[in-house]
Amino acid sequence: QIGQAKYNDVVAQLGPPVAKETLSDGSLVAKWVRTSYGTTRSAASSDNWTEELVLKFSAGGLLTQSSLHEY
């Protein structure tokens, strides 16, 4: 959705970001984090994961970059 998605639409889909920062050029960088503990809720479970999504939006609110990290 790069070049099409707008910040408000992404917030409507994912909820509010855990962090956001407006850069000097007026663009916005926002981060969302999701964690799953699987069905066992055990730290030893291989189903545990954390996903960090960082998105950058233009000064006009249009998505320009995305980065996804899983660990």
Outline of this structure?
With 71 residues, this protein is mainly beta. It has one helix and four strands; from the N terminus they run αββββ. 7% of the residues are buried.
Key attributes of the depicted protein:
single chain; mainly beta; 1 helix; 4 strands
**Count of runs of 4 or more consecutive helical residues:** 1
Low-confidence stretches: none
Helix content: 10-25%
Q: What are the secondary-structure elements, in order, as H or E?
A: HEEEE
Structural class: mainly beta
User: How many DSSP-defined strands?
Assistant: 4
Strand order of the largest sheet: 1-2-3-4
Gap from first CA to last CA: 24 Å
**Average pLDDT figure:** 89
Give me the Rg, rounded. 14 Å
- Main β-sheet, in a few words? 4 strands, antiparallel
What is the beta-strand fraction?
Answer: 35-45%
Shape designation? elongated
Strand-helix topology:
Layout: H1 7-14, E1 19-22, E2 28-36, E3 49-57, E4 63-70
Antiparallel strand pairs: 1-2, 2-3, 3-4
What can you see in these coordinates?
- Helices cover 11% and strands 42% of the residues.
- The chain is built from one helix and four strands, in the order H-E-E-E-E.
- The protein has one helix at residues 7-14, and strands at 19-22, 28-36, 49-57, 63-70.
- Strands 1-2-3-4 form a four-stranded antiparallel beta sheet, with no helix packed on it.
